[in-house]
Every structure is written in C-alpha cells, then in structure tokens.
Design brief:
Helix content is about 55%, strand content about 0%. The protein contains 16 helices and no strands. Belongs to the LanC-like protein family.
Length: about 400
C-alpha cells in the first residue's frame, strides 16, 4: 500500500527507552511534560471555546457533536485542570449548566443514549443541579431520565442495543449519575432491568440466527464488532455493571462472547469493524482495536484470564504503529481516542511504555491541524473535534484517573 492510500501517518516517534521516569510520586506526569501539556491544553481550550461559540448549533444538544459534548468537557475540566481552584471549578460547572439549559429545547425525545440522545443531557443536568445546590431541579431531571427506562426495557424491536443509539448507551447514563452522586442515587432494580433487556435482546437474536454465540447483536442488519455500534461496546457496558443480578447470572454467556471476540482478532492486533467485513482497515475507538482494548482489559479484571490481557496488549501494538490517523485528532476516530488505549493499558499494567506512548500521541496533538488531516464536519465537538482533544490532554496530566469520556466508568 502506498503511503497516500494509508489511513494513518507513519509513526516516527521513538518508543520508550526503558529508563526515563515519567511519573512523579503523586501520580502526575513529571516536569517539563506536565507544564508543557498544561500550556498546550489552555491554548487549545481557548481556540475550542471561541470556535464553539461561533459555530454553535442550538438544535444539536448531543454529546457526540453538539452542546452536550462541550458541557461534558466543562464538567471534566472542573474535576481536572481546575480541581484546585475553587472559583474556576464552580465557574466551569456553571458554564456547563448554562450550555445545557440553553440547549434543553433541543431535546428530541427520540434517541435513548448518553452520547447521542436526551439521556446524556438529562443525566448531566441531574449531576450539575445537585452539585450547584438545586436539588429540586436535579430530582425533576432524574425522574425524566428514569421514566425513559420503560421504553428502553419495553422490548421495542426497533431500539438497538449498541452504545451510540441503543440500550447500552442508556445504561451508561444511569452509571454516570451513580458515578457522580453515589450508587444509591439510582435504584439497582432499574439498572438490573436495563441489563436484562440488553441480555434478552442478544439472546433473542442468537436463537433466531441459531448462532453458536449465546448473545448476538446487530445494528442496521450488520454484526458490528466495535465500541460504538458493536458487541465490544455492549459487552463492555455490561461488565461495568457487575452489581446487577442479571449480569451476574449471565457471566458465562458474556465470557463466551469475549472468547469469540478474542478469536476474531487479526494477526496485526486489530479487530474487524463487523463480522461481515473481514478487512483489517479501521483503527479507531469506534471500529477496531482502540475500542476493543477497553473490553479486553475489563474482561481480564473480571475473569482473570491472561489471554484477555495479552489480547489487549496486542491491541496496544497496532494502535502504536498505525494509530496516528489521517482523520484527525478527535476521540471517536482520531489520535486522542486512540491514545486512550495506551492510558487504559498503563492503568492496568503500570508499564511506563504505555504512558510514554500516550504522551507521544499528546505531542502529536500539540500540532493540531498541521499534519494535513481532514477537518471534521463539527470541528470543535467532543467526539469528532477539538473538545475531545482537550479532554484527552487534561486526562493525561493525571493518567491513573483518566477515563474515556461517555464510555468508561
Ligand atoms: Zn468514529
């Protein structure tokens, strides 16, 4: 393949030398990297805020491309970059609330997920109102959020199960509220029902297809594999919900799916985008190894089999060699999203090699827009554009606390 046909730039960064210390005793990355990344983050954040204001679309309140994504970034900044500055911290929470209150009329009552639908906006409002002392409003939004569970659990055959538009994306909204306000905030019975609905749906399709996998999922009639539309994302969300009885009683079926996915890994370390498509091409969070790594590490934590960790480590190799994408710097199908694969491996293994690799991808993002990448349709958005890059850069400052936004609990 000639370099012009490739979807990625050749990675010319040196790999980890095995000696340099990258972390200080408090877990943060060492100087001068810390100050450099902080400075670059502030620079990009300023550009991003200005760009967002100028290109704002009040009809799009999604986390993926719209106002919801900017609100999520602001919430994240209040917990990371501005954690120790009480005034700034409160200001960013208020900014997030302002954006969401302004875009509330954009709620469509259609899509059921954190990333693309009303539950994302509602669950952020639940958290923000609560943090800013407006408990009655927080409760109202929580009731609205929970009332959607009837539809999610009602067996609507047109509702998919995947993370971007389906039940697993609704599940994340509930986990998000729990993560910020405590597990007791949401009745475990409801979470259990949502997981059961996802499991029932997978079982139904598996039986219908006489598939040897106990759980099967499709989106638009294709058996997608990846984190955004596929089985990787669905199974990952279930494994992040271990307290649910329905998940506990189906761990064997869930593990069979993980086993099956392991067998689908390409020799390169990547994964197919769907079972219908056997080409080793896309290395994105949404399709491919950078999303699968999160599931494989989780499966290793839950089931304890070395095989799952070595599958995850293989993902890390292909992301390093082929992960500097021409599609840009975002988190869905860009360099920042791919770098989260390294942060995930670093958190699991403690191996500084992975932190080094994440830092090199961060360095790549410092030259935002200078590599000749395609400009995304929503250049300042969280999932396609600059807001996602800023989110990643603040996460790398304190790598042990990093989490892929709207996906990792
Ligand atoms: Zn994508």
């Amino acid at each position: 393949m000639s370099s012009s046909e490739r979807r990625y730039f050749e990675n010319r960064f040196e790999d980890y030398d095995g000696r340099t210390s990258l972390q200080s005793p408090d877990g943060k990355i060492v100087e001068p990297y810390y100050s450099r990344i902080r400075a670059e983050t502030h620079k990009l954040l300023k550009q991003c805020e200005e760009g967002f204001e100028h290109s704002r679309d009040d009809h799009d309140c999604s986390v993926y491309t719209g106002a919801g994504g900017m609100a999520l970034l602001y919430m994240h900044l209040s917990e990371t970059l501005f954690k120790d500055d009480e005034t700034q911290k409160q200001q960013y929470l208020k900014n997030a609330l302002k954006i969401l209150e302004h875009s509330q009329h954009g709620l469509k009552g259609k899509r059921m997920t954190f990333i693309c639908g009303d539950p994302g906006v509602l669950s952020m409002l639940v958290v923000l109102y609560s943090k800013l002392g407006q408990d009655a409003k927080s409760e109202t939004c929580l009731s609205k959020l929970l009332s959607l569970s009837d539809h999610v659990c009602g067996g609507d055959p047109s509702l998919p199960d995947e993370v971007l538009y389906g039940r697993a994306g609704y599940l994340f909204s509930l986990l998000f509220v729990q993560q910020h306000l405590g597990a007791e905030k949401i009745n475990l019975g409801i979470i259990n029902q949502v997981c059961q609905a996802i499991l029932d749906s997978g079982e139904r399709l598996s039986k219908h297809e006489r598939n040897r996998m106990p759980l099967m999922y499709t989106w638009h009639d294709k058996h997608y594999v990846g984190a955004a539309h596929g089985i990787v994302g669905i199974i990952y969300m279930l494994l992040q919900t271990l307290p649910a009885q329905s998940v506990q009683s189906n761990l064997r079926s869930i593990e069979e799916c993980v086993e099956f996915l392991v067998s689908e890994q390409f020799p390169s370390g990547n994964f197919p985008s769907s079972l219908e498509n056997g080409t080793d091409k896309l290395i994105h969070w949404c399709h491919g190894a950078p999303g699968a790594v999160h599931l494989m590490v989780k499966a290793y934590q839950v089931f304890g089999k070395d095989k799952y960790l070595s599958t995850a480590l293989k993902c890390g190799e292909v992301v390093w060699s082929h992960g500097l994408l021409k599609k840009g710097y975002g988190i869905c199908h860009g360099v920042a999203g791919n770098a989260y694969a390294f942060l995930c491996l670093f958190k699991q293994t403690g191996d500084p090699k992975y932190l080094h690799r994440a830092m090199k991808f961060a360095e790549w993002c410092f030259d935002y827009g200078k590599h000749g990448c395609r400009t995304p349709d929503r250049p300042y958005s969280l999932f396609e554009g600059m807001a996602g890059t800023v989110y990643f850069l603040t996460d790398i400052l304190d790598p042990k606390s990093s989490k892929f936004p709207a996906f990792e609990i």
